[in-house]
Design a protein that fits this description.
This protein is α+β, with helices and mostly antiparallel strands and about 475 residues long. Helix 1 packs antiparallel against helix 5 and helix 9 runs antiparallel to helix 10.
């Protein structure tokens, strides 16, 4: 960010320098060219006046000594041109003038226009032509051809001077801007550097490290102070929420246990009382399952965000072997397919918890005699493991709802469960930078796909020191 702001300052200063320097350079160029033009124009007009009598008497050689002396002193060629365009006399023997626009304009009786801007790399001489008038009639033209070497060198030297001054000014502006940029961005850099730490602290329930800065603009200092207050409020709110869930679950477990004992000890008379007692026991068991789910969800939300590097094959194989006993008891086949040798970034225990929740659902809803596949593959800097069953599946409009807390499909209310398993799995996966999606594969059933950040074997954990 500091580099971008410094580049922005340099660009703005450079634009100001270009906006001021270019017009100044062009203005100085025009001034120098105009000064030489005026000087040469006066000499050209003088030669046009001196040429009136020689042209009237048809003796152009009479002006030749004056033209040659002028050329020797100033190095400027002087040419006298007849009305038809032929050269009558020149300060240098054998020199002729091409019928340029300026010469034709002079022979038409009009004076020379000011010279255009002269660029340092333009080596053309400055040519001026003035009509020679005798009794108001154009008899010829006096032409001066001035070299521009000295003028071009002066212009180039001035432009280089302006360029050097601009570069020095730009360097000084950068030197002045650098501490100012540091001062401005210091609170922002602390906020940026501390944001990840604050997010991890907030999610894990630990106190958030303050990012407030005593230096910098007042507006940014207020921003960091407001951020610290917000982080503290969010941390306190999340901690209170988690504490409430955990405390409520623990506090409800004792009355629930007592209620179940009393129901077991209840001696009812008649079949109706026995049925009511059995129904009450089943409701108590269901409430126990819900409380267990709430406790698991609270533990999942307190899971640290620092990720470990885990070997996915080992975790998956152990989970498959652990659940295969239950699957075979339910007349199901549990298979492992796909790529091997995959590593992922995830907090310790996260993959196990997700697999337990997903495989539990798959076994509950699979049809007897069907198979459950645990498939793995690489997926663009992430690794994927998916659990697919061949049960009744979910309707398309139910796929996004199934990961909500306590959600149960209307067609599956008779299946035991709290409705928290997939919610716990989704929360655990997203906390480590992954994602979880429910899909309806071809052939029916449900596919739960989990993506985790990929890792290389031996890569240090994010929580490990560098």
């Amino acid at each position: 960010m500091r580099r971008r702001l410094l580049v922005t300052v340099m660009v703005l200063v450079a634009m100001v320098l270009v906006g001021l320097g270019v017009p100044l350079a062009l203005s100085d160029n025009r001034t120098a060219v105009q000064a030489q033009f005026v000087d040469r124009l006066a000499d050209t007009v003088r030669f046009a006046a001196l040429a009136q009598r020689p042209l009237l008497e048809s003796d152009s050689a009479a002006l030749l000594p004056e033209m040659q002396r002028y050329d020797q002193v100033y190095g400027i060629i002087v040419v006298l041109v007849a009305r038809g365009g032929e050269t009558l006399a020149a300060s240098r023997p054998g020199y002729t003038v091409a019928p340029t626009d300026r010469v034709r304009v002079a022979l038409a009786g009009r004076a020379s226009e000011p010279s255009p801007m002269l660029l340092p790399w333009d080596s053309r001489p400055m040519l001026l032509a003035e009509p020679v008038l005798v009794d108001g009639e154009v008899r010829g033209a006096a032409v001066t051809i001035s070299p521009t070497d000295t003028l071009r060198r002066d212009v180039l030297a001035e432009w280089l001077l302006l360029l050097c001054a601009g570069l020095i000014t730009l360097a000084l502006a950068v030197l002045v801007a650098l501490p100012v940029v540091r001062w401005i961005l210091r609170p922002v850099q602390r906020l940026d550097a501390g944001l990840a730490r604050v997010a991890a602290s907030v999610l894990s329930g630990a106190p958030a490290e303050p990012v407030g800065e005593s230096r910098g603009p007042a507006e940014l200092r207020r921003l960091t102070s407001s951020f610290d207050q917000m982080a503290a409020t969010v941390t306190q709110t999340l901690a209170s929420q988690r504490a409430f869930v955990a405390d409520a679950s623990h506090q409800l477990r004792n009355p629930l246990t007592a209620l179940r004992l009393r129901l077991n000890n209840l001696d009812g008379a008649g079949a109706h009382a026995a049925e009511e007692q059995q129904a009450a026991l089943e409701e108590a068991d269901r409430l126990g399952v819900v409380l267990d789910g709430l406790l698991a969800l609270a533990r999942a939300e307190r899971t640290p965000t620092g990720a470990d590097t885990i070997e996915l094959d080992e975790v998956l194989d152990l989970a498959v072997e652990r659940w295969r006993v239950l699957a075979e008891h339910e007349d199901l086949r549990l298979d492992r397919t796909g790529a091997t040798g995959l590593w992922a970034h995830a907090p310790a225990g996260t993959v196990e918890a997700v697999l337990d929740a997903v495989l539990d659902n798959a076994i509950k809803f699979s049809l007897p005699g069907s198979a459950i596949e645990v498939h793995t593959e690489e997926a663009r800097e992430r690794v994927l493991f998916a659990v697919r069953d061949h049960g009744p599946g979910l309707a398309p409009e139910e796929l996004d709802k199934a990961t909500a807390r306590f959600w149960r499909s209307p067609s599956q209310h008779n299946v035991e469960g709290s409705g928290l398993g997939l919610a716990i799995a989704l929360s655990s996966v997203r906390r480590c930078g992954g994602d979880l999606k429910l899909q309806s594969p071809d052939g029916g059933g449900l596919r739960v796909a989990v993506w985790l950040p990929a890792a290389e074997p031996g890569t240090p954990s994010e929580a490990d020191p560098a």
